[in-house]
Specification:
One of its GO terms (molecular function) is NADP+ binding. Keywords: Amino-acid biosynthesis, Arginine biosynthesis, Cytoplasm, NADP, Oxidoreductase. This protein has about 350 residues and is of the alpha/beta class. The protein folds into two domains: about 120 residues, 3-Layer(aba) Sandwich (Rossmann fold); about 160 residues, Dihydrodipicolinate Reductase, domain 2. About 30% of the residues lie in helices and about 20% in strands. β2, α2 and β3 form a beta-alpha-beta unit. α1 packs across α11 and α6 runs parallel beside α11. The longest helix has 15 residues. About 45% of the residues are buried. Bound molecules: NADPH dihydro-nicotinamide-adenine-dinucleotide phosphate and N-acetyl-L-glutamyl 5-phosphate. The site of NADPH dihydro-nicotinamide-adenine-dinucleotide phosphate has 31 residues, from α1 and α11.
Length: about 350
């Protein structure tokens, strides 16, 4: 049994960590922080957790107490993990950061997209990008994990087999993505109000979203050369879920695309390649750590279309964070992550 702490426990990804870890036989959540709810019991704020965390209460994010944990999850806004990660690592505590603090390898690029100086550039070299389907070996020995963003997870998993096989033009990638409103976090914002977000849909960040450099970096790593990506996110009237429609231009005879995807993900516990002709739904992954994919080649033409769905709070954040923890501590990769999705 290991002891873990969660910094930022009142947010959507924090409470999702609690929900999933309640089923994890090897993990004891020993500390959870919130500056605004200090002293409040977790189960008083989140009644769905009654019976699971009856004594655990929110406390201040004290570095010394966090340093007594085996691992600490950061479910906080950007910049918070920068300030605390170094001290925790020095104490031998492993850090799993759900924010974007360590996702980009270039500190200057991070500063440009996040509008603040990078607070811990000295840690960038050791941070491992926590996408197990690409970096499983490195994750197993990592001390510091940058959990991928929600859109980046859905997009990279969809393009991975095609780019690895060299079948599409890396300069003509188009990712048309939709997110539910929990993607914007729990903080009060006009755009997340029921009357603003329901019965409507809109694109945002079309001329440049902070996930663009993260996705491009990941696809570049697969492709081993520059990529040209157009990424347009949309806000849709659902609570959870990411739906990515990915377009690629074939440069060679692709052979059997369905077999390519099935073979690439045959040993991946959290990627489900749907039968040929499928259209995966976001609700089929609600609450679970699975990415469901389908690959199409309309009219047998030159365009390949990949459909990729995840739950932004699970494979897009907290579930993937636990998948990383399992790998880092030598637990079965799917420990605590095996329940089926809630449907409808
Ligand atoms: N929502 C999503 O779908 C996804 C989110 N992420 C990322 O995960 C992180 C958390 O997201 P989410 O749960 O949505 O965020 P929320 O806004 O819902 O929650 C943020 C949490 O962080 C705490 N917090 C805020 N500022 C600080 C601070 N300076 N020091 C310590 N704690 C702080 C808050 O509690 P308090 O202020 O009381 O301390 C709160 O518990 C973000 O970086 C986000 O980008 C990643 C993938 C998907
Ligand atoms: C709907 C919505 O607002 N989504 C967020 C992305 C989700 C998220 O939290 O981003 P990270 O994965 O990088 O942390 C956004 O567009 O900024």
């Amino acid at each position: 049994m290991i002891k873990v702490g969660i910094v930022g426990g009142t947010g959507y990804t924090g409470v999702e960590l609690l929900r999933l870890l309640a089923q994890h036989p090897q993990v004891n959540v020993a500390m959870i922080t919130s500056r605004s709810e200090t002293g409040v019991k977790v189960c008083d704020m989140y009644p769905n957790l009654r019976g699971h965390y009856d004594t655990l209460a929110f406390s201040e994010p004290d570095a010394k107490q966090l340093g007594a944990m085996d691992a600490v999850f950061f479910a906080t806004p950007h910049g918070v993990a920068h300030a605390l990660a170094g001290e925790l690592l020095e104490n031998g505590t492993r850090v799993i950061d759900l924010s974007a603090d360590f996702r980009l390898r270039d500190a200057d690029e991070w500063s440009r997209w996040y509008g603040q100086a990078h607070g811990a550039p000295e840690l960038l070299q050791e941070a491992v990008y926590g996408l197990p389907e690409m970096h499983r070996k490195k994750i197993k020995t990592a001390r510091l994990i940058a959990v991928p963003g929600c859109y980046p997870t859905a997009v990279q998993l969809g393009y991975l087999p095609l780019l690895e096989a060299g079948l599409i033009d890396p300069n003509q990638l188009i990712a048309d993505c939709k997110s539910g409103v929990t993607g914007a976090g729990r903080g009060a914002k006009v755009g997340s109000l029921l009357a603003e977000a329901s019965e409507s849909m809109k694109a945002y960040g079309a001329s440049g979203h902070r996930h663009l450099p993260e996705i491009s970096q990941g696809l570049r790593d697969i492709q081993q050369s520059a990529v040209g990506l157009t990424f347009v996110p949309h806000l849709t009237p659902m609570i959870r879920g990411i739906h990515a429609t990915l377009y690629g231009q074939l440069t060679a005879d692709p052979g059997d695309l369905q077999a390519l995807f099935e073979q690439r993900y045959a040993n991946e516990p959290f990627v489900d390649v749907m039968p040929a002709g499928s259209h995966p739904e976001t609700r089929s992954v609600k609450g679970i750590n699975t990415c469901r994919l389908a690959v199409h080649r309309p009219g047998n033409g030159n365009t390949v279309v990949v459909l990729s769905v995840i739950d932004n709070l699970v494979k897009g954040a907290s579930g993937q964070a636990i998948q990383n923890l399992n790998l880092m501590f030598g637990f079965d990769e799917n420990t605590g992550l095996t329940a089926p999705a809630l449907m409808p």
